[in-house]
Amino acid sequence: MSLSKPEERLALELSCPICLQLYRDPVTLPCGHNYCLGCIQNAVHAEDPKSSKHCPECREEYGSPETLPKNFKLSGIVDGFLAATSGGGLRGGATVACDHCLDEPVAAVKFCTRCEMSLCPSHLKRHEERHRSLHVLVELPAERDGKRCPVHLKVTEYLCVQERLFLCSECLMEGTHQHHEVQTFEVAKGEMTRIIEELGKSVSDKLQMTEALVKSANGGPPNKAEDKLVARANILLDNMTSLITTYKSRMSTEMDDKLHTRDKSWQANLCDLEGCLHQLQEAQQCTSEVLNQSSEFLFIQNYLTVEARVRQAANVTIPGLHSQESSDAKHLCALLRTDAFHAEMSLLLECLHGIMNPLDLTFNPVTANPSLLLSTDLKTVKQCAGVKSSCAGDHSERFSSVSQVVCSQGFSTGVHMWAVEVGPGCAWSVGLCYKSIPRKGDHSRLGHNTSSWRLQWKSKKLTACHDSANVAVGDGLIVPPKKVEATLDYEGGTIAFHSSGHGGRKQHLHTFSAMFKDAVYPAFGLHSTSGDSWITLLSGV
């Protein structure tokens, strides 16, 4: 309850000296001092029960608090005071200060229509003595449209912008403000209205962004980032284990088949060698027998008998041992698809490296169109059409024709993944571009040049575009994705987009194929101006 000075003095007189509040059930001590019944009872309880009771102010002795008489008159005065102040009976509206009391404001009681000044009782008496009945005095008006100049006592009509002072016409004639910017109240109000409306719009835009961030933050950490990171790493490690297990199983099967075939071939080769050995041994024995024959007749006879067999043995081709380790190893690599295994394992390792070393993307303020508003951490962008944002000023990298912004981080090698969350009902573009993308004109739009690739949700349609070749994608998607993930394989020449739903379920949206020749940068666009038009870069992806 706000009170004027007379009311404050009255309220002080009607306050209990113990609790310093207005009396409640006041009682009177024999000495004449008054207290709230509850306050005097509490004071008695705080003292020694066996000691006598004394007035807290004058220390005069009295009996039990229960025997003290209630002060009905004082109680009625307090009730009347409360009723008057709560209903405005004592104040008659807001207090109007006396225009003559400059050191300390004093409540005025009358208003002079001739001087257009409010007067306190003291200055009212002097005013009546000076002007007698020549000036008309009335009750205080509810409001005052203007304030008088304290120097010349004339109504102020101007504002000194530099010194922020109200001036009257005589202040201007004196020339003390001739080098200052002076405005009439009408001009000043118009200028101040424009400024406050611009500031209000900026505050409103930032309020909407903050509310969206608070709403997102109130949901708690997004799926507990640490748990999500561990889960994704475990999935990749499980995939690696599965890949190795499959490769090992395939290798064991192929090796068993190879060993069985080799054993059969070896046995056949051994049989051939043993047959050849037996033939040669037999021929050697026949040769020895012929040469050891002393009779010429028998020598010739035996020669004629064994000559054909010995000649055949002498010309026999000895079968060699099979040695195909080199060719078998190459054949085995082909059967086991070793190159494919190496490629898959390398991709999984790169993905694991990306998870354990997550990207920390931020928007580049110097590239943002002036209609865009960036958050302090440079991770959220929203439209602020009609308001000059912090992304103003000329810069060679700034998009001047379309509401787009590029990230500060670029990639010229490796596999990288990032994700964004988009506002509900927002029309957006998510893509990739070279640093050489045009910054002005229609060809600066993402996807409408050879320097960029983009996925876009607009007019309830999902489209993909590169070099102005626009195609519908998403298999008749009706509900816009709330979270979009992008995966760049620089050496592989692909940029793939997926939507991420509840439970981590992903839906492939589109994949671009390209032979990247320079560093590429994540790029984004906003094509709607509603309060829900925003894009937020997600960390730890």
TrEMBL record:
<keyword id="KW-0399">Innate immunity</keyword>
<dbReference type="InterPro" id="IPR027370">
    <property type="entry name" value="Znf-RING_euk"/>
</dbReference>
<dbReference type="InterPro" id="IPR003879">
    <property type="entry name" value="Butyrophylin_SPRY"/>
</dbReference>
<dbReference type="Pfam" id="PF13445">
    <property type="entry name" value="zf-RING_UBOX"/>
</dbReference>
<dbReference type="InterPro" id="IPR013320">
    <property type="entry name" value="ConA-like_dom_sf"/>
</dbReference>
<dbReference type="GO" id="GO:0005737">
    <property type="term" value="C:cytoplasm"/>
</dbReference>
<keyword id="KW-0863">Zinc-finger</keyword>
<dbReference type="InterPro" id="IPR001841">
    <property type="entry name" value="Znf_RING"/>
</dbReference>
<keyword id="KW-0391">Immunity</keyword>
<dbReference type="InterPro" id="IPR017907">
    <property type="entry name" value="Znf_RING_CS"/>
</dbReference>
<dbReference type="GO" id="GO:0045087">
    <property type="term" value="P:innate immune response"/>
</dbReference>
<keyword id="KW-0479">Metal-binding</keyword>
<dbReference type="Pfam" id="PF13765">
    <property type="entry name" value="PRY"/>
</dbReference>
<dbReference type="InterPro" id="IPR043136">
    <property type="entry name" value="B30.2/SPRY_sf"/>
</dbReference>
<dbReference type="InterPro" id="IPR003877">
    <property type="entry name" value="SPRY_dom"/>
</dbReference>
<dbReference type="InterPro" id="IPR000315">
    <property type="entry name" value="Znf_B-box"/>
</dbReference>
<feature type="domain" description="B30.2/SPRY">
    <location>
        <begin position="341"/>
        <end position="541"/>
    </location>
</feature>
<dbReference type="InterPro" id="IPR001870">
    <property type="entry name" value="B30.2/SPRY"/>
</dbReference>
<dbReference type="GO" id="GO:0008270">
    <property type="term" value="F:zinc ion binding"/>
</dbReference>
<dbReference type="Pfam" id="PF00622">
    <property type="entry name" value="SPRY"/>
</dbReference>
<dbReference type="Pfam" id="PF00643">
    <property type="entry name" value="zf-B_box"/>
</dbReference>
<dbReference type="InterPro" id="IPR051051">
    <property type="entry name" value="E3_ubiq-ligase_TRIM/RNF"/>
</dbReference>
<feature type="domain" description="RING-type">
    <location>
        <begin position="16"/>
        <end position="59"/>
    </location>
</feature>
<dbReference type="InterPro" id="IPR006574">
    <property type="entry name" value="PRY"/>
</dbReference>
<dbReference type="InterPro" id="IPR013083">
    <property type="entry name" value="Znf_RING/FYVE/PHD"/>
</dbReference>
<protein>
    <submittedName>
        <fullName>Uncharacterized protein</fullName>
    </submittedName>
</protein>
<keyword id="KW-0862">Zinc</keyword>
